[in-house]
Design brief:
Shape: globular
CATH class of the domain at 2-168 and 198-227: Alpha Beta
CATH superfamily of the domain at 2-168 and 198-227: NAD(P)-binding Rossmann-like Domain
Strand content: 15-25%
CATH architecture of the domain at 2-168 and 198-227: 3-Layer(aba) Sandwich
Radius of gyration: 20 Å
Number of helices: 11
CATH topology of the domain at 2-168 and 198-227: Rossmann fold
Strand order of the largest sheet: 3-2-1-4-5-6-10
């Protein structure tokens, strides 16, 4: 099978490129950036999925499956226009290219953010109601692919909806939490007994590989979450079990934490620089995000990597970087 991966220099896309190569697949990748967070695959070419001619540069190779990872996805410094330009319009151009080449299989990396921040257990039957620009733009990308599916009944698509992804070389939300516990954070927000869904990149890659032989005509959607579904407090305890990390000394109420966060919001606004602490991140940290992923397990997926193992790898990488 020949696989075309968008966003192939990102921490998900680059891992997929190398992993599928090791399994014997022929892979091709496109990314608008030259730099790669880990190791650039030799079959990655620079290009923008919003430019049809950049995609047509791959007309000389056979493609059986598109894995669409390219997206704007950071929670700071990205405008609504940029989110929708990359996540909706980019998907439109990619699906146009798929139609031109008669490519009939697509795996789309979406997000649990299409549901909004779920405070109750939320599976694939949950209400679709994004509450931020990122989630809304990824949902718009899903709608584009649904329209593409409806044009030809022989086409196949899978939406993978991961929650917070963690792994070495990822500087997002989990990195910020690990960083705080390494710096011996004095306080935590709330009691931490709420569920905080996470998924390791290793398990997400396994899920991607697993769904390929299970693809069928039409649409399938799967949440991507590690088990067990753990609380924030338990997650912090797992981090603190690693040498060099400690639990906070005491907790403070959310309302007081948000006052602290607004102070940092002001610094961010003045300095125009992202900081690990702001009111939005503190609110997310103190809010339950409980998503469930039983559907993919009922299909036969077995989780091979424990949260403890993958957190340890991420903590070790963090210390090496320091």
């Amino acid at each position: 099978m020949n696989i075309f991966i968008t966003g192939s220099n990102g921490f998900v896309g680059s891992r997929l490129m190398w992993h599928f190569s090791e399994l014997g697949y022929k892979v091709y990748g496109i990314d608008k950036r030259d730099e790669c967070l880990i190791e650039k695959h030799p079959e990655t070419r620079k290009g923008d999925i919003r430019e049809i001619d950049d995609l047509r540069n791959f007309n000389n190779v056979d493609i059986d499956l598109i894995i669409h990872c390219a997206a704007d996805k950071h929670d700071w410094g990205i405008s609504r226009e940029s989110y929708f330009s990359n996540n909706e319009y980019g998907t439109e151009i990619l699906m146009k290219y798929a139609s031109e080449r008669n490519i009939k299989k697509v795996i789309y990396y979406s997000t649990v953010s299409v549901y909004g921040h779920a405070s109750v257990p939320c599976d694939e039957n949950g209400e679709i109601h994004p509450d931020n620009e990122y989630g809304a733009s990824k949902l718009a990308g899903e709608k584009v692919i649904e329209l593409w599916l409806n044009e030809n009944e022989t086409r196949e698509a899978v939406f993978l909806r991961p929650t917070i992804i963690y792994c070495p070389h990822n500087y997002a939300n989990m990195y910020n939490l690990i960083d705080r516990l390494h710096k011996k954070s004095i306080f935590m927000v709330g009691d931490g007994n709420h569920i905080k869904s996470v998924v390791s990149l290793a398990n997400l890659v396994d899920m991607t590989i697993f769904v390929i032989p299970h693809m069928k005509r039409g649409l399938q959607a799967f949440n991507c979450i590690d088990k067990p579904y753990i609380s924030l407090h338990k997650l912090m305890e797992i981090i603190a079990e690693n040498k060099g990390f400690k639990m906070p000394i005491f907790s403070i109420p959310l309302k007081f934490a948000l006052l602290i966060g607004r102070f940092f919001d002001l610094i961010v606004k003045i300095a125009r620089k992202d900081l690990p602490i702001n009111s939005d991140r503190l609110l997310k940290l103190a809010t339950s995000t409980e998503y469930h992923a039983e559907k993919i397990r009922e299909l036969g997926y077995v989780q091979n990597h424990s949260i403890e193992q993958e957190i340890q790898k991420t903590c070790n990488w963090y210390l090496e970087e320091k």
